[in-house]
Design a protein that fits this description.
Layout: H1 3-28, H2 34-38, H3 41-60, E1 64-69, H4 76-91, E2 100-106, H5 113-127, H6 138-154, E3 158-164, H7 167-170, H8 176-186, E4 192-198, H9 203-206, H10 209-212, E5 219-221
Parallel strand pairs: 1-4, 1-5, 2-3, 3-4
Helix pairs in contact: 3-4, 5-6, 6-8
């Protein structure tokens, strides 16, 4: 065999683990690209619009829903997270019960209605230090959602629901989660906002009529 070819193969093989390790570290850095992206004026504008909407919910008690859309790699999740960090840092004080709670769902992970509603209940209990009943049924968790939103509203506390991969919730034949969540925040006994995050611009059109009627047609586009 050719020793030069063998040496080259060995050199390439040795470099593969280093390349994989570098790629792994890049993928696991949660803030990758965030700093440079947030400096772009177009992203600042998107962030300001989201912040104004959420601040209105917190201060004025106006329930809101909005779709944040952008192409893959457009930093839309980073923009949303930057705003959430700023708002929770502004309104939540250490050592006190949070004024603003953030509940996060992903259509890629929480893709069935029962599991998604259970996860909402779990996160709400975790935020406000309540007992979480893991074995609760869908109807029990739905009742809990409505009751806790009502109680939080009395204390002027806000829940922000962030639904990543929002389009995966809209393509389902039955959209019970979206309908029940939007219906729960629509009444006067709730102080909440729903942020849908997606690559698709047609999410609202894909929603059932009963859910679409409860969702505002606000759309914030994060440019690539």
């Amino acid at each position: 065999s050719n020793p030069k070819v063998a040496d080259a193969c060995e050199s390439n093989s040795a470099s593969i683990p280093a390349a994989v390790d570098l790629l792994r570290r890049q993928l696991l850095v949660g803030s990758r690209g965030q700093n440079c992206r947030q400096k772009l004026e177009c992203h600042k504008e998107s962030a300001n619009r989201i912040e104004r909407l959420l601040t209105s919910t917190i201060i004025n008690g106006t329930n809101n829903s909005v779709l944040v859309v952008g192409a893959p790699g457009s930093a839309k999740l980073e923009v949303v997270q930057t705003v959430l960090n700023k708002i929770t840092g502004q309104f939540n004080l250490k050592g006190t019960s949070p004024i603003v709670g953030v509940v996060r769902l992903s259509g890629l992970i929480h893709n069935d209605e029962c599991g998604a509603l259970r996860e909402i209940a779990r996160q709400l209990c975790n935020i406000w230090e309540l007992h979480f009943l893991r074995s609760a049924s869908f109807s029990t968790n739905l009742r809990f959602l409505r009751e806790i939103l009502s109680e939080l509203d009395k204390s002027h506390k806000t829940v922000i629901f962030v639904l990543d991969s929002f389009d995966l919730y809209t393509v389902k034949q039955k959209q019970g989660l979206l309908y029940n969540l939007l219906d729960a925040i629509q009444g006067s006994h709730a102080q909440a906002a729903v942020l849908g995050v997606s690559n698709r611009h047609d999410c609202v059109e894909l929603m059932e009529k009963r859910a679409r009627s409860r969702f505002s047609y606000r759309k914030i586009v994060v440019p690539s």
